Amino acid sequence: MTAPSSRPTRKRIGRTRSGTGAEQDARPRRTVEGADRPRAPIRTRGLTKMYGELVAVDHLDLEVQSGEIFGLLGQNGAGKTTTILMLLGLTEPTEGQARVVGLDPARRPLEVKRRVGYLPDSVGFYGDLSGRQNLRYTAQLNRIERDLAEATIDEVLEQVGLTARGDDPTETYSRGMLQRLGIADALVKDPDVLILDEPTTSIDPLGVAEILTLLRALVRDRGMAILLSSHLLNQVQSVCDRIGIFAAGRLIGQGTTPELSQRFGEDTAHIEVGIQTDDDTGVARVREVLAAIPGVVEVTTPSRPLDPWIVGVRPAGDETRVRRSILAAAASTGLDLTSVRPLPPSLEEIYRRAVEKAAHGHARDVR
Amino acid sequence: MTADTPAQPAPVRREGEIPSRRERSVPRAGWMVVARKELGDHLLSARFVILLIVIGIAAVIPLYFAADAIRSAASSPSLPAARFLTLFWYGPPVANGQVTLPSVSGFMAIVGPLLGLAFAFDAVNGERAQGTLPRLLSQPIHRDDVINGKFVAGLAVIAIVIVVLFGVIAAFGIIRIGIVPTAAEILRLVLWVLVTLVYISLWLAFGMLLSVVVRGAATSALIGFGTWLLFTIFGGLIVSFVKEFLAPVSGTDTTQVLQNYGLRDLIQRLLPDTLYREASLVLLNPQVMSRDVSTPTTIGGLTQAQQQIPSILSLDQSFILVWPQVVALVALTVACFAIAYVRFMRQEVRA
Lowest-confidence range among A65-74, A286-295, A335-344, B20-29? Predict the structure, then answer.
């Protein structure tokens, strides 16, 4: 998912840099792909958290680069929130270490928290204060000068689409609006790293699209590093550059969706085939034709007449060849073909398989 | 956002680099920001307004009767010293002497704890319930800034309430009785206000402790008010129970009697209510002797001999007499706050 280019970049109102700052501004911006690739803003090595006997996070190695959105995927209680709390220095790791913007959050929490915006899971605000007043308090806690704070608050409220409701008490806000205000709150300090715990829960679909667009814009224009945790698979898939799958405190896989698919998929590609059929005999004939193509391992008949057929191909590398064969077969047998397109690997499938695989592996370890 | 302002490129930041805006920031400690916000919240809150009205009314009624009684007695030699302060410790009899209204100081001993509890019982668990605690703690402040700031804000609002209240009482006294306080009396009054503040801050610290330990705000309020009832209303009952049944101070064995007497004193002295009442009595009334107050043996022994003779104590003598009480109140406050502090620092952030 790419952000529309019309999205205005984040302005830096009144943010003049003093002293040597001017020279730094003149230097070209580092890019993620550049040779002088900066050290990852979020890095963990063997990060472990135990609550008594319970291992909440088990030797986590994680890296999130500037200019990328990393999605932490996992069930409730998989250790996502614990990981995030350790990254913020709000919980001390039992073992291992974390580096956030190059600093150890357990030792120097203040510097880390000054530069990391955090949206907690089920964020709350002071109900009797307005959204703007709540953000103002955050700005004061970050020691942001008053004028700059006001300008920044206007800006972030605009970014999350709450300008019109900014002066209403937050107890009148809906759950989704609170969530947006939470994102605005994390942005008030103009962070280098954004950590969002379930950012899109309880926001309506249109709102989610806006928020995801905003996140992409922040990453693109400001080179922010964003770590978000979620259990909403398609949102994670649509917005994240890389994904880490979390189960029982362990990161059982990380990478882009295709990478994960390669690792955890059952090596089956899927092709969506649109074929018009008149009656049951037509359906049976189509099924026969599709199943006869070499490489096809499964054919899913649509439950409704106009829906597409789904063809499973194994090995996945044969997908292009099979697609051509379908076209040829349709031409030779006179099928009424309307569309043929490969289906992207489904994150849900990958996730399910990854978790299953990890559970098996774990069971073997125990034995 | 307007499109005509050209967007500047994001500045380059090196690892560990400090963003520029902090160089121009206002140097202010985190606890001050928290305290300022909390104080603002308190002053605008319904509980502040209600408490101010209730306490105001409840203090003015006995004051009205006291002033009448004092005025009629002012000319007689029975009230020789610190007449002005009589206003604060004299409990006037009403309905032809059938009922004695509590004095202002006695009244503070009862409602002071309420004041302290009211501004602290939901300090931390309220934040937790609202879901604001993780957000607050993810800001660049130390964790203790939260609890320190809240304590200071509570203290400030209580100081405002009692200074205003006592100011009004003093002004009322000057107008109604027509006695202008002497410098020594003002000094005694100031010391008493400070002791009152310590007494209330003990309950503030206790409320704070409850708000850290107990998850629900309603539960912590109930426990707090229950403890208040136990100490201020039933405190006397507990002491007399111990006195009468467990350790009677009458008997034939002298050692036993002395031991029991000591036990009784110890129990009595553990009650913050007693400590405060004794401190008020001595500070406000120069005629009060050591025999009216449960002094610890050492200081009691030193002062007892001279003070058995009825006399008027100077301010420093009065203060020496109540020093143990004041220290005990401060110690209890510090202990409560310290436990709350440690518990809060070790608590998990998530609910």
Answer: B20-29
Q: Which chain B residue lies closest to A40 (C-alpha atoms)?
A: B15
Radius of gyration of chain A (CA): 25
Q: Phi/psi of residue A250, each to 5°?
A: -115, 145
Same-domain check for residues A301 and A203 = no
pLDDT at residue B297, as a whole number: 44
Integer CA distances (angstroms), B282 to A141, A304, B67, in order: 45, 93, 20
Residues A218, A309 within the same domain: no
Show the beta-strand stretches assigned E in A192-241.
Answer: 193-197, 225-230
Sorting pLDDT into bands at 50, 70 and 90, what band is A35?
very low
Going by the DSSP 8-state scheme, the letter that residue B182 receives in this structure is: P
Q: Which of A150, A224, A161 is nearest to A190 (CA)?
A: A224
The range of the structural domain enclosing residue B88 comes to 29-229
CB atoms within 10 A of CB A256: 12
How far from chain centre, in Å, is Cα B267?
Answer: 20
Classify residue A5: in a domain, yes or no.
Answer: no
Q: Is the peptide bond before A109 cis (omega within 30 degrees of 0)?
A: no
Q: What is the pLDDT of residues A201-244, one digit of tens each?
A: 878 888 888 888 889 988 988 889 999 998 888 888 888 999 99
Which residues, at least 6 apart from B2, have a Cβ–Cβ distance to it below 8 Å?
none
**Size (chain B), residues:** 351
Q: Which residue of B has its CA nearest to A18?
A: B20
Count the Cβ atoms, other than its own, within 10 Å of residue B15. 11
Helix axes B217-228, B123-130, angle to 10 degrees: 160
Q: Which residues of B touch A10 (CB under 8 A)?
A: 7, 10
Strand A225-230 and strand A193-197: the pairing is parallel
Six-digit token string for A75: 């069930």
Kind plus residue range of the DSSP H or E element containing B267 = helix B254-270
Asked whether A148 and A211 are in contact (CB, 8 A), the reply is no
User: Which CATH number do you get for residue A183?
Assistant: 3.40.50.300
Contact A127 B350 (CB under 8 A): no
pLDDT for B11 equals 45
- The mean pLDDT values, 10 residues at a time, for chain B of 351 residues are 42 44 53 92 91 83 75 61 73 68 82 91 92 92 92 94 87 80 86 93 96 92 92 75 65 70 72 85 72 48 50 73 88 95 88 52
Residue A20 within a domain: no
Higher per-residue confidence, A335 vs B101: A335
Model pTM above 0.90: no
Q: Does residue A253 sit in the same domain as residue A274?
A: no
Radius of gyration of chain B (CA): 25
* Within-domain flag for B182: yes
Flag whether pLDDT at A134 surpasses 60: yes
| Judgement on whether residues A208 and A70 belong to the same structural domain of the protein | yes
Q: Which domain holds residue A58?
A: 35-262
Q: Which residues of A touch B141 (CB under 8 A)?
A: 110, 113, 141
Token code pair at residue A40: 């990852």
Look at the block and give the residue holding tokens 């250790």: A79
- Residue B269: CB atoms within 10 A of its CB come to 17
Q: Are B33 and A140 in contact (CB < 8 Å)?
A: yes
Q: Is A101 on the interface with B (CB under 8 A)?
A: yes
Q: Which of the pair, B336 or A300, is modelled with greater confidence?
A: B336
In a shared domain, residues A156 and A257: yes
Number of domains, chain A? 2
Q: For residue A271, give the H/E element and its range.
A: strand A269-276
